[in-house]
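User: I'm curious whether this sequence folds into something compact or stays loose and floppy. Could you predict its structure so I can see for myself?
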Amino acid sequence: MPEGVTGQDEAGRLWDVVWMTRFAILRSRPGCDRIPVAFYVRNDNRAARLVKLIATCGALDIDDPQPAITLMMPDED
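Assistant: Here's the prediction. I'll summarize afterward.
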């Protein structure tokens, strides 16, 4: 979290990311492999801005097939 931003902390930001990802997953169509996630954040003491992420679910690693949810920027793979 940027220093000096009021009303923000790391735990709250993580909660927002996880909560909004949950809702995006619940609203998604079955079989969808890339799910858009959007929420508003404040990185300064001005108005919040919209942040868009992509959630994917797949193997944790090529050698470890356990499922994992990965959040990334829309232009990442």
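Summary: The two ends are 25 Å apart (CA to CA). The first helix runs from residue 10 to 27.
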